[in-house]
Amino acid sequence: MILKAYKTGVRYKYLLILEKIVFYPWFFGVQICPRKYTIFSIMTKISFPYNLDSLHKQELFLREKAIEIIQSKPKLSLHLRAVERAMSLAKVVVDYPDNDEDFKVVKMLSIRMFNAFGASLTLMSSGYHQNGGLVMRDILETVFLMDLFKTDNTTIERWRFADIKTQRKEFSPVAVRKALDERDGVHTMKRAEAYKMFSELAAHPNMHSQHMLKPEKGGDIVTGPFMEETTLEAGISELGRIAIQAGEIMNAFLPEGWDHDDVRASFALIKNEWIEKFYR
């Protein structure tokens, strides 16, 4: 093999002369019969796009600013502790030794929430507040579904095998919220209001969503990530509120006495501290 390289700007071009190389099917994504070939090819190594690299550096810079803001506000730190414990609780659920098909659904949804908590926090701390809110709606919807499953374990199997008609009738977001409200005997529509808030501000492209793209109230929308204390505080507060709900419902699926590294016990302490701080 002969290798020659020459530099043009920031790009390095390589001239490769390959002789009698055995190629197998789908090598380089091209199906070639498994026989010997003499190939002359030019391959180009291109650097990572500068603008994307610059954007990522800005995200890291904003993350440092976000950490400074959070560390300066004890209430925000408490919200993050709740998030961290809820994520740890998800791991306890996943590690619980139960291979029942219905419980595998509980594990799957717990993993989904673990990933969503991490994604939402990463997005907000990097300056993408609207996108972080979008992921929060996903967590909220998952919490409601798991709450329904805990109310009636037979719904898990029905959900697993539901056709499109049944999914829409029994397990659509609005159907799940309605079932939970009827179970609790409430007519305040608080679940629907919370879901609607995330839908309008973060999920659906409408005029309300512009507020999540403004560093200052009444100001102009900006392109790309930004960090603003009030916006970050609102997002972290909502994430902490959802973390308490998520932790409670995941904990409800575990048998009494099962724990790992006292995660369940520590979540209970954080939950009590959180309730004491924000609701009493």
Topology of helices and strands:
Blueprint: E1 2-8, E2 11-22, E3 36-45, H1 50-71, H2 74-95, H3 101-125, H4 129-151, H5 154-161, H6 164-171, H7 173-184, H8 190-203, H9 229-252, H10 263-279
Antiparallel strand pairs: 1-2, 2-3
Kindly describe this structure.
The protein is mainly α and 280 residues long. It folds into two domains: 2-45, no CATH class; 50-279, no CATH class. It has ten helices and three strands. Helix 2 packs antiparallel against helix 3 (101-125). Residues 1-43 have low confidence and may be disordered.
Brief rundown of the structure:
The chain has 280 residues and is mainly alpha-helical.
Distinctive features:
280 residues; mainly alpha; 2 domains; three-stranded antiparallel β-sheet; 10 helices; 62% helix; disordered N terminus
Counting DSSP H or I runs of 4 or more residues, the number of helices is: 10
H/E topology pattern = EEEHHHHHHHHHH
Number of domain units: 2
User: Uncertain regions: pLDDT < 50 for 5+ in a row?
Assistant: 1-43
Spatial gap, N to C terminus: 75 Å
How many individual β-strands? 3
Strand content: 5-15%
Shape: globular
Quick check: average pLDDT? 85
Question: SS-based structural class?
Answer: mainly alpha
Task: Give a quick account of the main beta sheet: strands, pairing sense, barrel closure.
Answer: 3 strands, antiparallel
Rg on CA atoms, Å:
25 Å
Helix content: 55-70%
